[in-house]
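Hi support team,

I submitted a single chain yesterday and got back a structure, but I'm not sure I'm reading the token output correctly. Could someone confirm the output below corresponds to the sequence I sent? I've pasted both exactly as they appear in my results page.

Thanks,
R.
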Amino acid sequence: MSAIEFTPQGPFPLINDDEHSYQEAQEHSVVVDEWLGFKTAEIEHALLSSHKYNIQADQNIPVNFWRGLPVQALQTPYTEIRHILHLLNPQKGQHIVDLGCGYGRMAFVVGMHYSDVHFTGYELVAERVDEGNRILQKFNFPLSTIKTQDLTDPLFKPVSADYYFIFDFGSAPAVDKTLEDLKAIARQRPIQVVARGRYIRHRIFQAHPWLAEINEPRVFDHFTIFKS
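Hi R., thanks for writing in. Yes, this is the structure output for that exact sequence:
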């Protein structure tokens, strides 16, 4: 294995997982974040010392703001995002939704390599959304947008789309609520769900047969692709 070379001409390379380690993918993502101009470390430090997100919303589903973690632990490496999109192979006019998108890394990979595909990212923490949108303004990606949204809000329903990306973002009730939202969409149209992380994948296999048992999932080291 060797370190992933960064070039501004191709900041999101398509490479096989066996050609690099996960740490090298994270290190490459640090360089890409710096090249894009993200100030994630400063924002996460400010969030950690802020009282803004200390109070739990008055609702039945616990909310996790994921403060205090290293930035790279919060976000999927760019090379992995590129690999996932290559596997999905979205077509012109289709729509990708990232449920819990952090700073919106996927928006940049979609915008650069799938410019005729729509992207919507939802993120709970407004400061992350603002920073993602600040960087997005440097590019001409009119089909990509990042929005502040609490996925556990009982009044919220994700936009109808072709593909959904979900990371381990909260408690069982929070994950179940989102998966039930997707189930309602799947009654109207076929969807694919990329579940990243051990817990979300376990939860789908354990409690959501509508997604896990209709079609054979495609299982990878860090994520699984489910098809309704």
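A quick pointer for reading it: The mean pLDDT is 90. Let us know if anything else looks off.

Best,
Support desk
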